[in-house]
Structures are given as C-alpha cells and as structure tokens.
Amino acid sequence: ALGAAIADLSSVFAVYAPISAIVKVLIALPFVFVNKKSEKILTPLTICLTIPSGVITVLGYFLGDLIVNKAYAVADIPMNIVQAVGSAIIFVVISAAFDAAKLKKKLFINKK
C-alpha cells in the first residue's frame, strides 16, 4: 500500500495516492486473515482469494475515479481488470517460488 502510494506521488497520478493506499490495504486483508496457519503462501484458498481481490481492485479504483474524475471512471475499468488479472498471475508465480524456498517458515510467521 505504501509503495503504491509513493509511486503515485512520484508521478502524474499523485491524486490517486490515497486511493491506491486504501485499495491495496483492502486487497491484502483477506489473505492476512485467512492464511495465518498455513505453512504455504500458495494454497487453493489463496488462489481463490485472488478473485475477491480483483473485484476490490476494480471497484476500489472505480469509486476512486468517481471522486477524482468521473469522466474516467468507466473508461478505466478495462485497465483495472488488466491490473487485477496481472496481479493475480504474479501472486501465483511469486508465492510458488517463495513456497519452494520455504520463505514463510523462515520469516518466523508460523513459529510457536
């Protein structure tokens, strides 16, 4: 969330910084609450969670566009869908690599 906001602030999209921060936090929440006990990042459930996260992305930026510039709200939907699908694909690839490296366990997330 912080990285997305900073990226927006350092570009011509600075007005979207608060929107990006809010949307990114909302996207992460389902994963944080659901996948605490699993030793893996990539599970059938987390793969399924990319769908509501995608919906949050599209709706969040749509609502943000309604606040910032109503004229772009509908026009931005296709690119927000591309962003959501791309993010889901990247999540699957990176989390599979992290699981192969047993990174979640090494980061003390599941230590007793």
Descriptive notes:
There is one protein chain. The chain has 112 residues and is mainly α. It is 74% helix and 0% strand. The chain contains 6 helices and no strands. Helix 3 packs antiparallel against helix 5 (77-100). The two termini are 29 Å apart. The model has no long low-confidence stretch (mean pLDDT 90).
Low-confidence stretches: none
Quick check: average pLDDT? Answer: 90
State the end-to-end distance: 29 Å
Put simply, the count of helices is 6
Beta-strand percentage range: under 5%
What is the element string, with H for helices and E for strands? HHHHHH
Task: Write a concise synopsis of the structure shown.
With 112 residues, this protein is mainly α. Helices cover 74% and strands 0% of the residues. It starts with a helix and ends in a 6-residue tail after the last helix.
Topology of helices and strands:
Elements lengths: L1 H8 L7 H18 L9 H25 L1 H4 L3 H24 L2 H4 L6
Which keywords apply here?
single chain; 112 residues; mainly alpha; 6 helices; 0% strand; elongated
